[in-house]
Amino acid sequence: MQYRNGQRLPPDAVGVPARLSVNPRARRLSIRIDGRAGEAVLVAPSERKLGEVVAFARSKAGWMRERLAARPQGAPLEPGGAVTLFGRPIRLAATGGAGAARLTEDADGPLIVSGGEGEAFARRVENLFKRVARETLQARTDVHLRALGLRPVKMSIADPKSRWGSCSPHNRTIRYSWRVIMAPHAVIDYLAAHEVAHLVHADHSPAYWSVVQRLIGDHRPHRKWLRDHGPALHAVGR
Q1: Angle between helices 119-148 and 185-197 (to 10 degrees)
Q2: In the chain, beta strands by DSSP E
Q3: Cα separation, 73 vs 62, whole angstroms
Q4: What pTM value is reported for the model?
Q5: How far, in Å, CA of 190 to CA of 208, rounded?
Q6: Which one in 27, 117, 138, 158 has a CA-CA gap of 20 to 30 Å to 1?
Q7: Cα separation of 71 and 236, whole Å?
Q8: What is the 3-state secondary structure (H, E, C) of 110-125?
Q9: Which phi and psi (to 5°) does residue 36 adopt?
Q10: Domain 82-235, architecture per CATH
Q11: Can you spell out the DSSP letters for 159-212?
Q12: Rounded distance between C-alpha atoms, residue 146 and residue 188, angstroms
């Protein structure tokens, strides 16, 4: 069978829903779990190696099923629920009407109140998080740009399926996932440093990581935090 980059495989092909991905920088066949999409991503260094990664995935069917079954389930953004903001729990409450979501506080602690019902309520809460993410990440991006003596960049906020950020050095743009705003401040700052450092080195070479370390010190705890808790953040509202 001829396989192609980006092709999606039905569950009976390798035991779980899967997508093929060619990464020329990959040094070996690998499998990663995309919890948000509910599928395994089978990675090969070239298109001619896709058949090999499919065969490899068949031998890992049990492991893939276990990983997909263990992925966090999405919790809806609804009144009475809770999310995190800067790593701290914050409750959600309805105000009635159609007002925008806003941050406030009562006797029990921090609170997000919003108008709207159902999807409209969730959309208002998400929009609030996007606004906070834009303000926070713009500020931290600017700090790291100044530290490296770099010119300003164009920054945007999006909701990618699994990535936390991306940088295009050639057109000086950085894109962040709004969901990182649910992480602790230090993790958010790490992400900003991570993307800004790509303006200096586009790869993940030792030279690149030395730039990140220059900006924030030891980055390893923050990378681990995203690996451990990131899937849960990507599941919020899904």
Answers
A1: 60
A2: 8-9, 18-22, 30-34, 39-44, 82-85, 88-94, 102-106, 109-114, 154-158, 165-168, 173-177
A3: 20
A4: 0.75
A5: 14
A6: 27
A7: 12
A8: EEEEECCCCHHHHHHH
A9: -70, -40
A10: 2-Layer Sandwich (3.30)
A11: --SS-SEEEETTTTEEEEEGGGGGS-HHHHHHHHHHHHHTTT-SS--HHHHHHH
A12: 17
Quick one: how far is CA 220 from the chain centroid?
A: 17
Q: Tens of pLDDT along the chain (238 residues)?
A: 789 999 999 999 999 999 999 999 888 999 998 876 789 999 999 999 999 999 999 999 999 998 888 777 677 899 999 999 999 999 999 998 889 999 999 998 899 999 999 999 999 999 999 999 999 999 999 999 999 999 999 999 999 877 899 999 999 999 999 999 999 999 999 999 999 999 999 999 999 999 999 999 999 999 999 988 888 898 888 7
**Token pair of 87 as six digits:** 């790593």
Please, what is the Cα angle at 16 between 14 and 20, to 5 degrees? Answer: 65
Q: What is the domain partition of the chain in residue ranges?
A: 8-69, 82-235
